[in-house]
Design goal:
The complex is a heterotrimer of chains A (297), B (345) and C (325). By secondary structure, chain A is mainly α. Chain A contains twelve helices and two strands. In chain A, α4 packs across α10. Chain B is 32% helix and 22% strand. Chain B contains twelve helices and twelve strands. In chain B, the strands form two sheets. Chain B has an eight-stranded mixed beta sheet with strand order 6-7-8-3-9-10-12-11, sandwiched between helices. In chain B, strands 2-1-4-5 form a four-stranded antiparallel beta sheet, with helices on one face. Chain B starts with 22 loop residues before the first strand and ends in a 10-residue tail after the last strand. Classes of the chains: A mainly alpha (297), B alpha/beta (345), C alpha/beta (325).
Chain lengths: 297, 345, 325
């Protein structure tokens, strides 16, 4: 005779219950909710920029010297820059570049980085491990910002090349992270069990080991969004990323430095926008980490 | 002055309540707040222990013995845990109402603990000597001791646990030692801290059986030679039989039976205790008996009456409705089961 | 008893090189985990292997299922040598020999639910369809309620997890299962249930078991023959009743006298002569001569020099000891 264990009508231990439990753990910390709100807000603004921005046409080639350098007020909530463009609208469009940078870089970086880490970890101790990890070490040895600057200077400065440069120096971190996890996991009994049963190497690496690496990978991805966006903004700031007149956030900050401190709003608001995005992803990353944390009791 | 033991009384011998008890737990309730609700883990735990006694606490995984142990020392994570009721008296003072300073005194001088896994209990980056010193220094007297006195107080326990070459042991790192030696070091640390009450949580489970035997014999000798009281927590019945004078049996957050050790093994009354005894394979052969059907109750929605009732082969109508209290069968045997409601002496 | 031999282990050795003594001479530091053992398991029986840390019992188990390759010696299954030449064991052989690991917590992937765990061996070895039905049948065999099918291991109790591990081993329809401390991590009331399930399955499917445990009381009740290992070698082998009634090897006596028992009758049966002393040496530093002599309370001068040979002192009862008292 068995006594069933159930809570809230959700059968314990199923996928639905796991999601509910995950949200519970995520929501314990208020700051994670704040982060989530920031990220959702930024995403919304970025996606619906043409509809939501008060002056969508200001995002491109637009000049209106009559309304240039106006401080924040009613018509232009965050003011206008020296070309007469509304800063608020441009920031909305600027979010697009930031998010795109993060999404594209991570899409390029995560699959190969993780795969290499898995393979190196599973074949730990063999030549495969050595080969992969030494190449990784070489990439990691180069100072990241220098590498990005070098690549960008050689190629035409634009957003696409900036993304490429950042991707080239970012993938090793995932390899190293996953290598550490996979090399420990491959000694677990459930891996031996799969081997004894006769599972293929592909199954073991991607169906047994990988699912146990998901949590640290997702956490890192969220925190990385913040880093990549910041790095992209830095590259734009020094002229190697998003080129004017396009409204990259870093580009906008750079464009306003000549006019500090009188026309402060031209640099400050885009800078604050960067802060919001970066902070949002950082807080979200903490929440995701909590969500995947093992439970007590 | 002393009132006769009432029916509510739990498991101490023919002595008046609380008078002279080293440790007394009364009606302890502990809840955990988790996703989906509250886990009512401890549901009215009663426990008494006197100086010089060796008491065993037997229970299986999930019965709440670790939670009880952690409550005594107030090392439960609160939240998510919450002490929802009851008192824990150590030498007459309620631990649950103590302020930090007094609690520290209790932890450093009154009660010490030996954990299940000696490897996890020792810090790998400090030597044995450094860890023992820390224990001595944190005791209340620690501030007033000279270097020489501190050193002597770290060497003495090492000698008592029969570790070879105590002087050299001080400079050894835990990972250089075998499992049995690490457990001895943990016992030494516990002795360095306190000589009043030693709580040993599964002291031999992670060790090989021949080493476990040595450790248990060491504990036995220590108790005989000094006047330290021992609370031995375990799920292994054989260990309890060899090491203790009196045993509590715990199930699903409550004590279900308490008796002098010999009496409990000769005459297990509670159906759970009986089931446990039957389930132990015997060295004399005879096959493997059936276990106990079912699983432990869901602490979020526990049964209304007796918590063992869903699995009990002798459950009665009243067991669904009410919770049994302790019924005194003998001077040294009490059981919380309606089957014995009318057998009280 | 004319049962066929299903598994024959002959002079099995498994050594691991864990480093080198110094940079120049490159003398390897070897762990002799298993250092020359031989035994036979008959079809349908439960052969017990007892030992403490460093005895090599788990290494033996892992070598039989090909997690390791032997350094020397042979293992034959129904007469067929398991490590003949090629690297990978054939699928047919993998199906026949399965293992249940000690710690159900780590032998089940926490990211896969019961259905997925049981589906894997079915997918690899049994081509038939209606997997869900087969999974249900497997769960039934180990007395697991079907509602656990979509649960993840964390939601299951220790006994239920181990039941899943057993069901997984059964899924390939094996003839030989190695049980490495299958109940050591479980409470005694749950252990009884699991052991009964295992015995029932053995009867129903004529399974042969290599049962590894340090719990001699349990061994007494499940095994038909018992071998005891110490530092990579077998010290004593006998039929169960004989093994417990008449232990010859001092280590066997030491182990028996260390067991905590629950009744007076058992106390009477335990040998009192030899109580445990000393530490278990590491398999890196195996003492010379008889590997047990440093802890042996009845050692003689000759024991430190020569390694004793396995001798049959009574029918079916073998001991490796100079004294054979």
């Amino acid at each position: 005779m068995t006594v069933h264990a159930e809570s809230l009508d959700l059968p314990k231990g199923t996928t639905r219950e796991k999601l509910g439990r995950g949200w519970y753990k995520f929501s314990r910390n208020t700051m994670s909710i704040v982060g989530l709100c920031f990220v959702l807000l930024v995403t919304f603004l970025a996606v619906f920029a043409p509809l939501v921005a008060p002056y969508p046409e200001h995002a491109g080639k637009f000049v209106d010297f009559a309304n240039a350098s106006i401080p924040p007020g009613r018509t232009y909530p965050l003011g206008t820059d020296v070309m007469g463009r509304d800063i608020l609208s441009r920031i909305f469009f600027g979010f697009r570049f930031s998010l795109m940078m993060g999404v594209v870089v991570l899409s390029l970086v995560v699959p190969p980085g993780v795969t290499l880490g898995l393979i190196a970890g599973y074949y730990q101790g063999t030549w495969i491990d050595t080969a992969i990890m030494r190449i990784t070490d070489i990439f990691l040895a180069v100072p990241p910002l220098i590498l990005a600057l070098a690549i960008c200077s050689v190629l035409t400065p634009n957003l696409f090349n900036a993304m490429l440069a950042v991707s080239l120096m970012w993938w090793p971190w995932y390899t190293r992270l996953v290598y550490g996890l996979a090399s420990t996991l491959r000694n677990e009994f459930f891996v031996s069990s799969a081997e004894v049963i006769g599972a293929s190497k592909f199954h073991i690496i991607f169906k047994e080991i990988l699912p146990n690496c998901i949590s640290p990978i997702f956490t890192k991805m969220s925190l990385d969004m913040a880093w990549v966006i910041l790095l992209g903004s830095s590259l734009s700031f020094v002229g190697l990323g998003v080129q004017p007149p396009r409204p990259g956030l870093g580009t906008m900050v750079a464009g306003g430095t000549d006019y500090l401190p009188e026309l402060w709003w031209i640099s400050v608001f885009p800078a604050l926008a960067i802060v919001v995005v970066v902070l949002g992803f950082n807080l979200l990353g903490d929440g995701i980490r909590d969500m995947f944390a093992a439970e007590e009791v | 002055m002393s009132s006769p033991p009432s029916r509510q009384d739990s498991g101490h011998l023919s002595r008046p309540p609380q008078n002279g008890a080293l440790l007394k737990i009364r009606d302890l309730h502990v809840h955990f707040k988790v996703y989906g609700g509250r886990l009512r883990v401890l549901d009215g735990v009663h426990f008494t222990m006197h100086p010089g006694e060796k008491v065993g606490l037997v229970g299986e995984t999930g019965c709440g013995k670790t939670t009880t142990m952690k409550s005594i020392l107030r090392i439960l994570p609160e939240p998510p845990a919450r002490i929802a009721g009851g008192e824990i008296y150590f030498k007459g003072r309620d631990v649950l109402k103590m302020k930090q300073k007094e609690l520290r005194k209790v932890r450093s001088e009154g009660i010490s603990m030996i954990f299940q896994d000696p490897t996890a209990a020792l810090n790998p980056v400090f030597t044995v000597g450094q860890q023992l010193e820390a224990v001595v220094k944190y005791s209340i007297e620690g501030k007033n001791l000279s270097r020489k006195e501190i050193r002597e107080r770290t060497l003495q326990p090492l000698r008592e646990v029969a570790l070879p070459d105590p002087e050299r042991m001080l400079d050894t790192y835990p990972l250089q030692l075998s499992g049995g030696m690490r457990q001895r070091v943990c016992i030494a640390m516990a002795l360095a801290a306190s000589r009043e009450l030693l709580i040993a949580d599964e002291p031999g489970t992670s060790l090989d059986v021949t080493i476990q035997d040595q450790i248990l014999r060491l504990l036995h000798r220590l108790v005989e030679e000094t006047d330290v009281s021992v609370l031995l927590i375990t799920h292994t019945l054989g260990v309890v039989r060899e090491m203790t004078d009196r045993v509590y049996v715990m199930y699903a957050g409550r004590m279900v039976e308490v008796a002098d050790t010999q009496e409990l093994f000769d005459n297990p009354l509670h159906p759970y205790t009986h089931g446990l005894m039957e389930a132990v394979p015997r060295l004399t052969g005879g096959g493997v008996a059936d276990g106990i059907a079912g699983r432990i109750p869901d602490y979020m929605h526990p049964p209304q009456g007796c918590r063992f009732q869903p699995r009990c082969p002798r459950a009665m109508e009243v067991c669904h409705q009410e919770k049994p209290t302790f019924y005194r069968i003998d001077d040294n045997h009490q059981v919380a089961c309606f089957l014995y409601r009318d057998s009280e002496t | 008893m004319n049962q066929a031999d299903i598994l024959t282990v002959r002079d099995l050795k498994k050594h691991f090189v864990i480093g080198h003594k110094d940079v120049l001479r490159r003398e390897p530091i070897t762990v002799k985990a298993v250092d020359g053992i031989s035994f036979t398991v008959k079809e349908g029986e439960t052969f017990g292997l007892v030992g403490e840390s460093g005895s090599g019992k788990s290494t033996t188990a892992y070598t039989v299922v090909a997690m390791y390759r032997p350094t020397a010696g042979s293992i034959s299954f129904r007469g067929e040598n398991l490590f003949e030449g090629k690297n990978e064991r054939t699928r047919a052989l993998k199906k026949e020999i399965q293992i249940v690991f000690q710690d159900p917590g780590s032998s089940l992937n926490p990211r896969r639910n019961v259905k997925q765990i049981l589906e894997l061996p079915l997918r690899i070895h049994r081509r038939e369809e209606n997997r869900t039905e087969q999974i249900a049948r497997l769960m039934d065999m180990v007395e697991l309620p079907l509602e656990h099918m979509h649960k993840y291991p964390q939601a299951l109790g220790g006994g239920e997890k181990q039941a899943v591990a057993i069901a997984r081993a059964l899924a390939t329809d094996p003839s030989f299962i190695i049980l490495d401390e299958p109940t050591s991590a479980l409470d005694v009331s749950v252990q009884a249930k699991i052991i009964n399930i295992l015995i029932g399955l053995q009867d129903e499917f004529n399974l042969s078991y290599l049962f590894i445990t340090h719990d001699l009381s349990l061994m007494r009740n499940v095994a038909s023959r018992v071998a005891i290992m110490y530092l990579g070698k077998i010290c004593e082998v006998a039929e169960t009743a004989e093994f417990f009634r008449n232990p010859y090897h001092p280590y066997t006596e030491m182990l028996l006298s260390s067991i905590p028992v629950v009744s007076e009758e058992e106390e009477q049966v335990k040998p009192k002569r030899i109580r445990s002393t000393g530490e278990i040496p590491s398999p890196v530093n195996v003492p010379p001569g008889c590997s047990f002599h440093l802890r042996c309370p009845v050692r003689q001068p000759g024991c430190a020099e020569e390694d004793p040979v396995m001798t049959e002192i009574e029918e079916g009862h073998w001991v490796r000891c100079h004294l054979q008292c």
